# Entry
Amino acid sequence: MATNEAGTNLAWFLAGAALGAAVAILVAPQSGSETREQIKRRAIAGRDRVSQSGRDVLEKGREIFERGKELADEAGDLFEKGKQALRRGEA
# Structure
């Protein structure tokens, strides 16, 4: 629950930061073409950062998934060993 709230708070913070940056760019004392170029550069940089973050999250998700599979396999092995030990004890 706390993680969800933290994610929501982070999203609102980032949205506010982006809005503040956009307003700052638009009221800056420079020509329209310079402003458009600056917006373009920042948009490309932001897109690249978001894309990289997505790749990082995907990679981390894959790592967690693989670790989960390993743990499940280990748990299954332990369960089978326990069943066999019980059977040997009953025999």
